[in-house]
């Protein structure tokens, strides 16, 4: 069970809640803060003070004062009018993360909602009811207005939800579960949608997947090193220590551990003096990507515990400040950074694939074919990898450098952070497929070299991977192999290390 406080949520907890569907509660202290914040809103209404979003219009309409009898309708109208998301829905796990992060932000006690709003979000999590939220339509400031409006619709009993593997109308599911829809009151609609939780939820899922993928890339690269009789000297700790990057040193150490005991690797001068960069520079390239992932993690850990709506209520309502915490620029830049970093895992992987299949670059059968000429073997798998890498170059173009003014130029600079996070997710899926292709080729290469000569760790990985993709003894529809191995890498969520391989093989 995870207790939310509004300020202590971790990425590991998000992973357990979103993937393992761990039960969630709200701390009593946080609920008390929510109650106090709500009392402040009620005093503002009673005193007839004019405060943005409570009794005024929104955006360019901020100067329009709303009559007391209409303040609740104002919030409902806001949600319905702003639910303009289009396109395919976010993955369900992202929707779940969005509900979690919006709840965590609101219980900080600066948003002026009633406790019942927080409790309804909690109910969605613990009943595994997840809003259907279209991916496109957010500018990333004033927060993720369109996506979060689709989330807010569900609290009101409107919209659609994911439930037990299917999509249903919200009220259909609420009736099955005995849940009552909520009528929004002053400030609550705005509090629900002013925030960065769409881009941040997508970003957190991106980071979780990218972390696993980066570690898997090291195992697959190690397999390639064996398949190409790579030179282990390039991973000597002295080389990496004198440069000084911790992430580079860590990658080199993990690959040394993975390849420990291998009789397929070579020493410099035995077969060649130096390997190509795609082998020799794995610690430097992968290490640089790990540096970026560390940066992204740091920003996400701040944002998942941040108050990001507007206005924010301080000092029991005596101080209500309109600001811009909903602006997604920190996450936009982090996601753009992630896109470049993760794309590089595929870029260097594709070059290793080329070295595995090109007879001019190795002493293996051309294109790893069982009958070169009659059968093409892995020839077109390299094409597919090259296509995915090229597509990633387009997706990696930074979204955060763009801005289009909105709301009659009141909102004249926006982050495009949700676009950045969506494109990062697309890149991650492409990278996984490229690594799957490298893995298939490397599995075939080590067979030619001799499986009995592999390191214990890579041999354990080989045995598990061969259960998914059989040896290439004749041409077949390799698309199926690529997709099967891609699914295996994703669904198993395995961080392959010397220890995990040993544990897997011994089961």
Strand order of the largest sheet: 4-6-7
Mean pLDDT, to the nearest integer, reads: 94
Number of domains: 2
Structural class: mainly alpha
CATH class of the largest domain: Mainly Alpha
Helicity level, as a percent range?
55-70%
CATH fold group of the largest domain: Fumarase C, Chain A, domain 2
Overall geometric form? elongated
Low-confidence runs: 501-507
Number of helices, where a helix is a run of at least 4 consecutive DSSP H or I residues: 19
Q: What does the main sheet amount to?
A: 3 strands, antiparallel
Number of DSSP E strands? 9
CATH-level-2 architecture of the largest domain: Up-down Bundle
Rounded radius of gyration (Å)? 26 Å
> What fraction strand?
5-15%
Q: What is the H-and-E element order?
A: EHEHHEHHEEHEEHHHHHHHEEHHHHHH
Spell out the CATH superfamily of the largest domain.
Answer: Fumarase/aspartase (Central domain)
Characterization of this structure:
This protein folds into two domains: 194 residues, Fumarase/aspartase (N-terminal domain) (Fumarase C, Chain B, domain 1, Orthogonal Bundle); 288 residues, Fumarase C, Chain A, domain 2 (Up-down Bundle), CATH 1.20.200.10. With 507 residues, the protein is mainly alpha-helical. Strand 8 and strand 9 form a beta hairpin. The two termini are 28 Å apart. It has a three-stranded antiparallel β-sheet. The C terminus is likely disordered. The chain contains 19 helices and nine strands.
